[in-house]
Protein 1
Amino acid sequence: MTEGIRVRQREQTRRALLDESRRLFATRGYAAVGLAEIVRVAGVTKGALYHHFAGKAELFRAVLAEVQGDVARRVAGAADAERDPWARFTAGCQAFLTASTDPEIQQIMLVDGPAVLGWADWRALDEAASGRHLAEELSLLVERGLIAPQPVAPLTHLLSGAMNEAALWLARATDPSALDDTRAALDRMLDALRAR
């Protein structure tokens, strides 16, 4: 067997583990899914799983990183569709809220993520996935005078915290108008930042 074939097989095994774990974690939650079930549905051995991941928590971390990356791409895609800097910013923020209503994203990123990894590790992954992008957008808006001059780091954390808290609330909301109401509240909050 050539090295290229072995590399492809390892990649396929890793991909199967990630895909099946993501599906199981999203539908049933981290605590309800065991490693035996993961390897069974992925069609691999426990040895193959341990070749790629130290255990269930490390596998979950990899799944969470993918989910956060997917959300970051949705946010960037919505922002990049706008030409105006303010519209880019608000579209990205709104895209985050909308993405966070996806049940898969809610369960993995918002419910299990902080519980499994702990707040500090979850926050570090969140900052790596989307916090940097938010800080860049805010810096641009301050630079262009669309937001009053101020330190960007605290503003980034305040907005990120508010949007994450809103997303956590939306994950448990039963009111059908919750997303629309939250999006409207976010628009008002962001508009209050705008330099007059």
Protein 2
Amino acid sequence: MKRSIYTAGAIVATLGLALAACSPSTGGGSSPSSSASGSSQPAGEQKTITFRLWDETAAPAYEESFAKFEEKNADIKVEVELVPWGDYWNQLPLDVASGEMADIYWVNSSNFARYADNGNLINITEELSPDHDEWQQSIVDLYTRNNALWGVPQIWDSTALFYNKDLVEKEGIDVTNLKWGGDDDTLLPAAQALTVDKNGNKAGTPDFDPENIAVYGFNAQADLQAIYNPWIASNGSSLQDDAGQFSFADPKGVEAFQYLVDMIHTHHVAPPATETNTNGDITRDMFIRGELAMYQSGPYHLKQIDENTSVKWALAPQVAGPEGRFSGSHGVVAVGNAQTKNHAETLRVLEWLGSAEGQKPLGEMGVSFPGAVDAQSAYVDYWATKGVDVSVFIEAANGNTAKAPFGPDVNSGASAYSPKLLDVFLGVVPVEQGLKEAQDLGNAAMNH
């Protein structure tokens, strides 16, 4: 089940799964703060801290983590609330406004800024001790605003290339060094060699039938996190400028998008946008069925692929561009509710959530890469037992990354530019024109 920060076929951020909803609850007064990893507290009134998230796969790991926390903190009980992604962001502003929001809850980068700016979140920099386990720096940077960190890193993902070993080895392709653009482009020739019609003809050959393709080479599509955001970054462009305005329609952005669109419509080495625009996960399913040879995506698809395919597959670094290799990278943080009635206890739970011990179940149960660096080996070990080396994702996250969408109004902007950008991938509007129109629509919506 997908936990990507963005759906592959949409623009607006998502890490969602359908979950069983629970009602928000709040606890009573407060008690003196102490270390979350210390010994059990003296017997007395037990305070309840609520923790809200949207991922049913992660919930059991948190239940296990909080059970260990409660063994060491007898005066605190942590209740996990599951709210479906489809309801999560509609319910959040209502609960914040009414004072019924959970004490601690998950957010992503597209949604935290508004709540930080409005004073709804606990300032992690000011209120948590700086003496904590090391956190994934790219996620710390993403949630730092106005020189303060507003959430405790929980899980993160980056980008790599899933590839069909049999098909790639048959063609003798070096997937560890693929690059798009320029005279030394190796991606397009590889994708052409791997794209085969139903008669066995390869893309780019005289008899190739683009209307009857059996296997595609690469997943060029409107996938913000795994494809076009790292793509434009690797060509020297960016989704947004430093002020938060959309900036992807500059010449370098146009060049990057043109390459992706040409893979679909000119070279026919990527699945049609008529399918990927409406179902971003169709390319994952094609890879599972052996109908896609190379699939650039994140660790959020590891379980689906591992559990559902008979294809022999492995991982390689994401495709590089003219400016080098840039990974899509994102993560989720746990934020503290500034209006909590149990401030001291909430801080103790946040301290636990930031510790490697507290996050270890997320790795051990194969949920995702934990935000605490010392807990990440548990996730690596989980996949090593299945014969999968996921270290390529760590290398990607620690290298150059394409900055994820940010700012209090970025969702409004993304919703405005999304339809026009999908038209670009459909090929119904020229790339340069479509990107300019999309960028203008997005910025107008953010600046309204």
Protein 3
Amino acid sequence: MTSRTEQRAATRRALLAEGRRRFAVDGYHDVVLAEVAEAVGVTKGAAYHHFASKAGLFRAVVAEVQRELGETVAAAADAHTDPWEQLRAGCRAFLAAGADPAVRRIVLLDAPTVLGWDEWRDMDDESSARHLAEALESLVAAGVVPEQPVEPLARLLSGAMNEAAVWLARTDDPGALAATELALDRLLAGLRQ
């Protein structure tokens, strides 16, 4: 027998998983919280208890997907020992992640609109943007990138990456990712000493 705490945690996980699936497939505006609750076998009241609203569930799903995206970017970077290759690999992993339907629909297309730009950017900063700043700091410290304030450089590159990721999420061009990676390599090459 499970304790009430374990049962609540299991209910929350089930609602998050079903919400994530539905937000990725149907988009925020077509998801009904009561239907998410029904799909996992709980009452609408239980869903409201855990998340207060559909927006609350969405915010929790975005945070989860953003955290996973940050972990993916960090893992891709950590697979390399050379700081320059870490930067390239992390940036490429971020761009490629848009192929995941959850990242594409939830994080890149719906989150900026539903949550607003400021909240979306704050969540991005917490999950993956900090990895970019850390990578740039290590490149400046190693002399690979000229000495300069890292914060504006990280913001510029993050903005370019986010814009490219949103564009990739919206395009049907099968060669778009390869073309974007080539443009990224050229852009990054301009940063080197």
